[in-house]
Design the sequence.
């Protein structure tokens, strides 16, 4: 046969491991039973001596073909879901000042009594909770509109949300001269974008994952509790700063904000892995890790 | 005339490669056969996309083979043409031959 003479020159090459990053790309295709023979073909040809560049080209090309195919079948519902999510968030940003104006007034001033302090703290918590509830609701809605590739949808939604913060960051960078105000404003914008991205991702993964808190692995549970505590502490410090009980800007606060983003991102990573491992279809990763069967 | 979908060029090439390979037709030799005969190297993913399309149309059928160590323990998927697929190939051949008949030689080609 023609093909056997074509490939026979590769036979002498010993066992090789395909490029991990390219393999990871292929794994993102999911739906293992369908792709198993294809992954096997690529592994076989790489084993026979094909170059790493060839393997990369196959991985990227296959991914492009699959994305093209999917955009035809799932593109409309995917786009509709992202647009709906953006509309919901935009609506929220529009109506929030009107709805929460009385609460804002409560906690923006310096309280003079214990009752005023409690009212300020409560109003701040109401606003924070409402923000979280809206994120939850918007992610729940979009994952009902498009159910097939929910993690990909979530990533695109978070990317679009984060991209909406770019004009604000650019405005700060262009409009302000160097100085304390500039650094403070830039930090505020960057933190707003980072926290929104991280927490939308965490909430989204929580919504789409079939795993619940009690069934999560120990490390994920501990990180979840730590992140929740961190949010509570940071919110209290934030309220304290607004009410004048604490200084508005300190270097330690920068570190706390950065820590909050980092721990939130770590939690998102753990939830991502948990949702991947608990998927209904066998993952290609598992197939790649399967022990080779002895030759007949 | 029956309203039907014609085979694409790549679909026809893949089906002809399956015919040539017989019982040994799986992804790797199919792509190699096409590359050797036509000089066109197709992506492995592209070959599978075409095969899936052909299977959905009922022109090819597939069966899973044994897993081998050099494939990381993954099975081969062998393809064969169905009766309908074979009929489709013959029909495409007749259509192409009919179109070639009486066609003036393209400029710059030798007899």
Sequence:
């Amino acid at each position: 046969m023609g093909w056997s003479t074509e490939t026979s020159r590769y036979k002498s090459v010993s066992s090789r491991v395909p490029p991990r990053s390219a393999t990871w790309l292929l794994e993102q295709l999911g739906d293992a039973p369908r792709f198993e023979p294809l992954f096997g073909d690529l592994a076989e040809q790489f084993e026979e001596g094909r170059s790493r560049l060839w393997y990369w080209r196959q991985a990227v090309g296959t991914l492009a073909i699959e994305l093209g195919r999917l955009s035809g079948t799932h593109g409309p519902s995917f786009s509709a879901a992202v647009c709906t999510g953006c509309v919901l968030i935009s609506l929220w940003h529009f109506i929030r000042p009107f709805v929460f104006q009385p609460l804002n007034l409560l906690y923006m001033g310096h309280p003079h009594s214990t009752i005023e302090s409690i009212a300020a703290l409560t109003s701040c918590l109401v606003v924070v909770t409402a923000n979280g509830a809206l994120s939850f609701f918007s992610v729940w809605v979009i994952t009902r509109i498009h159910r097939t590739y929910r993690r990909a949808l979530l990533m695109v939604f978070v990317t679009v949300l984060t991209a909406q913060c770019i004009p604000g960051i650019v405005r700060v960078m262009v409009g302000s001269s160097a100085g304390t105000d500039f650094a403070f404003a830039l930090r505020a914008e960057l933190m707003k974008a980072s926290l929104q991205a991280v927490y939308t991702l965490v909430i989204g993964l929580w919504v789409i994952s079939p795993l619940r808190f009690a069934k999560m692995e120990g490390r994920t549970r501990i990180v979840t509790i730590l992140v929740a505590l961190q949010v509570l502490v940071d919110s209290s410090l934030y309220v304290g700063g607004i009410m004048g009980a604490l200084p508005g800007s300190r270097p330690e606060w920068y570190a706390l904000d950065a820590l909050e983003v980092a721990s939130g991102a770590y939690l998102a990573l753990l939830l991502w892995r948990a949702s991947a491992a608990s998927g209904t279809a066998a993952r290609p990763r598992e197939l790649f890790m399967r022990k080779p069967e002895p030759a007949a | 005339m029956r309203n039907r979908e014609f085979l694409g060029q790549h679909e026809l090439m893949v089906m002809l490669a399956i015919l040539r390979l017989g019982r040994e037709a799986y992804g790797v030799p199919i792509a190699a056969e096409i590359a050797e005969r036509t000089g066109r190297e197709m992506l492995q993913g592209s070959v599978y996309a075409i095969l899936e399309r052909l299977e959905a149309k009922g022109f090819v059928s597939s069966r899973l083979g044994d897993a081998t160590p050099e494939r990381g323990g993954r099975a081969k998927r062998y393809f064969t043409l169905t009766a309908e697929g074979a009929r489709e190939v013959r029909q495409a051949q007749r259509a192409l031959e009919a179109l070639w008949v009486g066609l003036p030689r393209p400029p710059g080609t030798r007899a």
Observations:
- Chain A touches chain B through 36 residues (CB under 8 Å).
- Chain A has a mean pLDDT of 76.
